[in-house]
Amino acid sequence: MTTFIVPKNIFHGLGSLENLKTIEGTKAVIVIGGSSVKKNGVLEKTQNFLSEAGIQSAVFSGVEADPSIDTVMKGAKFFAQEQPDVVIGLGGCSAIDAAKAMWVFYEYPESTLEELAAPFAVKTMRNKAIFVAIPSTSGTGTEITGLSVITDREKGTKYPIVSHELTPDVAIIDGELCASMPGHVTANTGLDALSHGVEAYVSNIADRYNDALAKGSIDLVFKNLPRAVAEPDELETRQAMHDASCMAGMAFTNVWLGIVHAMSHQVGGTFGIAHGCGNAILMPNVIRFNAKVTGKYGDLAALFGKTTAEEFAREVAGLTASVGVADSFKACGIDEEQWNAKLDAMTEHALKDPCTLFNPRKPTFEEIRAIYQACYDGTAIDF
């Protein structure tokens, strides 16, 4: 018997930020990244709607891309000072992921990142606060998932914290918040959403509920991502990509992900490659690898009138190229000597990543290493 877990309330559609007025609480801490949500007025709108609901608010800002454990601990200290009963992650994936981790350390201050990175190690949450997620990028689906990815800079490793306890109580999916997103961010986050749909669809615990959402999200990304990059002010397209991201999130938070993410976590943590870019580079060869044990990629190829996994892999590569994202790690500027020096460590960490547990085909060290190398060189590999 399986479960399907999503936030209790999901408000979606252009202008849906206004639903903040329905939130109950007395004090909120809003976690943001840089200045974008200040400049575009989203932070001010958020605080005004909270004020209408009778909720005071304080802001923790400065969350960096690939949020670090140092930033998370600073945020947890801020939470302890402010004592919120509502935690709000506002902005891109980094802000929301960091807010989730701060929330855990706020409720369980004696925890360590290593402990929390063990599968489903998070204890019962909501002892002090509820969680509201408001994304301003369309990719990670973190507003809907029980996942937070935090980086240990000293070790050069990303740690996924995985637990349904981290599933937000409220998610607000408002495409208007994405209007100022730069083209390269739109492209990378959109490809991230695609990778979530694809990996959820072939997960080794996939089911009908999640399959429908995953396939629907994939269809939306292919139909809308190129236009979202080319015409950033087209709000209906922005909303379609926001919905695609959310739908993919609903799918993968229930059936999890695979080795695209296990491997991308390491490349991002080691070399700073944008997560969506890393996923896009890895996807075609991971599709080829997994196709030996599942025929489900043929279902996805059928979206384009095709039949085979290889044809679907080429569609993914074609979409990646069409939105200007690199097709290899070498093309991202990673020095070959540095790549070779880190390759075995990345391979080892990818094998231990929780996402690897849900891949349809169990990989060996040598197979992960071979996929990495092919994706560095930009070549297709035959498994």
From TrEMBL:
Residue span(s) of domain Fe-containing alcohol dehydrogenase-like C-terminal: 186-375
Every Alcohol dehydrogenase iron-type/glycerol dehydrogenase GldA domain range: 7-174
One Pfam family here: Fe-ADH
CDD domains: NADPH_BDH
InterPro entries: ADH_Fe/GldA, ADH_Fe_C, ADH_Fe_CS, Alcohol_dehydrogenase_Fe, NADPH_BDH
Keywords: Oxidoreductase
Superkingdom, natural source: Bacteria
Gene Ontology MF annotations: alcohol dehydrogenase (NAD+) activity; metal ion binding
UniProt record similarity statement: Belongs to the iron-containing alcohol dehydrogenase family.
Listed name of the protein: Alcohol dehydrogenase iron-type
Record organism: Desulfoluna butyratoxydans
